[in-house]
Amino acid sequence: MDPFLLTLETPRLRIRPLRPTDLADFHAYRADPAVTRYQGFDVFSREQAAAFIAQQLPLEFGQPGQWVQYGIESQRTGRLIGDCAVQLQQRDARMAEIGITIAPAAQRQGYAREVLQALLNFLFNLPDFHRVVETVDAENAASIALLESLGFRLEGEFRDNIFFKGQWGSERQYAMLRREWEA
Prior knowledge:
Keywords: Transferase. By secondary structure, the protein is of the alpha+beta class.
C-alpha cells in the first residue's frame, strides 16, 4: 500500500493529521495527569507537545511499523478534542494496533466510540485487512467496557508487565478480526 494522508469524518468529528495550530488544545489535555493516568506516556510540557506534533507532520498512513497520530477535531467547534494513533504491524500490514486519547471535557459523550468505529470501518475496508489490536491498562474500566461493547475479544492479560510512572502496571490486549466486525 502506498502511504497517504488519512482523513476520516463522522457525523460529529474529523480525524485528520495533527497541525501546528493544534498545539494549545493538544498540550492542554496531554499535560493533564488524569488523561495520562492510563496512557503509555506521561504529562507533556508545551515544548514536548510542540516537538511531538512537529515529528508527526511528515508521517503518512501506510508505513508498516510506524505509529501515526491523528487529531480528533470537533466539526462543530473546529477544536481538537483528542487524538488517536494507528500502527500497521511491521511484520504484516494486514494487522494494526490503535489507541485513542480524549480530552476530559469531551469524555463521556460517545466520542471514543465514534472514533473507534470510524477507524474500524476504515481499516476493515482496506483490501485483505485482517485484525485490529488495542492494548489497555488493566485498570482502565471505561476503555475496557468500550472495547467489549464493540465486540473486541480479550486475548490476554499481562500482569505487572510494564514499569511506568514509578510502579508496575498490568495491561490487557483486546483484538477484533475482520470477520467479527462484519458479523
